[in-house]
Amino acid sequence: MRIFFLTLILTVLGWATLHAQHSISSAFQRTYTGDNITVEYNYQPGVRWRFGGGVKWLNSRRYNWNDERAFYQTRRARTWPQKFGLSGHVGFNPFPATWKIKPWLTWNTHFTYAGANFQWVERTGELINDELPVVIVHHEFLEAFPTIEQHLMLRLEAQFSQYVALQMGLGYGFGYSWGWDPSLEYFKWRHDHRIPVGNRKSYLEWAPIMSIGMTFSWGKP
After folding, report:
1. Are 106 and 155 in contact (CB under 8 A)?
2. Dihedral of CA 209/211/217/221: which sign?
3. Which of 76, 36, 70 is nearest to 56 (CA)?
4. What is the pLDDT of residues 113-139, one digit of tens each?
5. How much is the pTM?
6. How are beta strands 64-65 and 75-76 bridged, if at all?
7. What number of CA atoms fall less than 13 Å from residue 22's CA on the CB side?
């Protein structure tokens, strides 16, 4: 019986390998959490659908400046584990499979666990020439907290050969953050004024995504 089930599993895996396309893609993505480098494995059982997933590297270290969105591109990893996250997508191609440049409608997701940086400009202190001096203020979330991103993206793939393609994409979505210490000073900017959020324990913000990378594939869907 064990031999039968083992043979059946190997048969199914062999059929899936021969009748599907597999690929490895790497991309630079600027998302809600900042600059990311992703590496994903993709499985394409036919000409219409594709499923992929992998890891991402959080590479963003810059501050955001007076942005009305509180956590938009503020994330900063302070330990090596915080630099790693997860990414995945489901793609659908409703267009003819013979096109050299293939459009894919994809639903993407990212998971990040890291802290955040803020930087803004205030006029505080004593008057100088009847004006308050400009002061650059920094604020950091030293403790990490999770964020999930969801994006709807149009991805274009240009085939250089049977195996290699350049892929570019633009889209829009949202980021959802939770789990930070509510006792920390948390705020957002609006019309040059800081707005305290108080004891709010989660936040949802709209955000775009931009992606460019390469795909190496084998097999045929």
Report:
1. yes
2. positive
3. 36
4. 998 877 666 666 666 666 656 666 667
5. 0.78
6. unpaired
7. 10
